[in-house]
Amino acid sequence: MDLSLVIPVYNEDESLPHLHKALRAALDGLGRTWEVVYVDDGSADKSIDVLERLAAEDPDHVGVVELRRNFGQTAAIAAGIDHAQGGVIVLLDADLQNDPADIPMMLGYIDQGYDVVSGWRKSRKDNFATRTLPSRIANGLISTVTGVHLHDYGCTLKAYRREVLTRFRLYGEMHRFIPVYAHAVGAKIIEVPVQHHERKYGKAKYGLERTLKVILDLVTVKFLLSYANKPIYLFGGTGIGLMILSVLTMIYLMLRRILVEIPVLTSPFFLMSVMFFILGFQSILMGLIAELLVRTYHESQRKPTYTVRRVLQRRESSDSAIPQNER
Fold first, then answer.
1. At residue 246, what are phi and psi to the nearest 5 degrees?
2. Of 208, 135, 146, which Cα lies nearest the Cα of 177?
């Protein structure tokens, strides 16, 4: 299978027939084998009935994964990836705001050697105050913290080489950070403008509350990418900083005692100094424990600490196949 499309579905029964028609129009002439994996994420409308009909009408291209309840967009995407068979995986929403006509253009960049082609809704057709502005702020924050500079992390329309997506697992609400994870395993990323349309059917599933989730998820992503393999750098660095602050505070109290004869033990700064030293020591101990856990994690699963893009094998010489005792 050359291409798999993974589409999470939640209450999109009106959009689905039009979406599948647009997919056929965009993909049938490409000369590639393709499939679309619709993942029904516990829809409360007739989405699953529509998907069953599409699967019956187009069995060569349609697969349906029905989840038992609503697990969220990230879980639905993860389920779709697990059931997809294509060498290239394209993610897109089911609400018709992403345009399937952009997929051939994105596949062209994959053919040029890119591992991730990320869509950028340059002319976004959403409410500016509740959707576009918070998204721009979140995109700027994510780009600054992670060092992976994209204009539109929230655009679901993205194309990936399969091997990039299988390097990590998705949890929580982490689907928007897939390019960051991909970059961490050495993926070559490009961002391209894509079309964006106003929603014709149904209503948006997200609002301003999503911005807070993005910030919390960003903290998790930053920790996992920067300190997951060396947690002592975070905990130990924090501990050393607190202990230095404790020592400086104590030096200040001693100098004040010598110069102006103010007692050390009666000052609240003395208690702060002691507390900083204890917290710093505990933080270093936590870092050591985290180091042991990381090593246990990697060694128990035989999980490598590196990723390989490709291997160019040297050609064995003709006499290398001769047994040593016959040479």
1. -65, -45
2. 146
Which helix (H) or strand (E) segment holds residue 73: the answer is helix 73-83
**How far apart are alpha carbons 275 and 59 in whole angstroms?**
66
User: Are residues 176 and 153 in contact, defined by beta-carbon separation less than 8 angstroms?
Assistant: yes
Two tokens, residue 103: 């997929």
User: Which pLDDT does position 209 carry in this prediction?
Assistant: 63
3-class DSSP state of 174: coil
Q: Give the tens place of pLDDT for each residue, 45-100.
A: 899 999 999 999 999 999 999 998 888 888 899 889 989 999 999 999 998 999 99
**Residue 288 one-letter amino acid:** L
Q: Averaged over 190-219, what is the pLDDT?
A: 77
> Which strands sit side by side in the sheet containing 116-120, from one edge to the other?
62-66, 34-40, 3-9, 88-91, 158-161, 116-120, 189-193
Task: Give Cα separations from 327 to 26, 53, 319, 320, 323 (angstroms).
Answer: 62, 69, 9, 10, 7
The rounded Cα 4 to chain-centroid distance in angstroms is 19
Whose structure tokens read 């679309």? 36
**Helical ranges in 121-230 per DSSP H:** 133-146, 162-165, 178-184, 209-227
Distance in angstroms (rounded) separating the CA atoms of residues 228 and 214:
20
With a CB cutoff of 8 Å and minimum separation 6, the contacts of 15 are 94, 95, 96, 200, 201, 202
Angle at 325 between CA 319 and CA 326, to 5 degrees: 50
Name the phi and psi angles at 34, rounded to 5. -145, 160
Q: Six-digit token pair at 172?
A: 């929580």
- The Cα–Cα gap between 35 and 102 comes to 17
At a CB cut-off of 8 Å and minimum separation 6, what does 79 contact?
39, 65, 67
Whole-number Å distance between alpha carbons of 181 and 218: 12
Phi, psi angles (nearest 5°) of residue 6: -110, 120
| Residue 95: C-alpha distances to residues 20, 153, 159, 161 (Å) | 11, 18, 18, 24
Question: According to the 3-state scheme, what is the secondary structure of 118-150?
Answer: EEECCCCCCCHHHHHHHHHHHHHHHHHHHCCCC
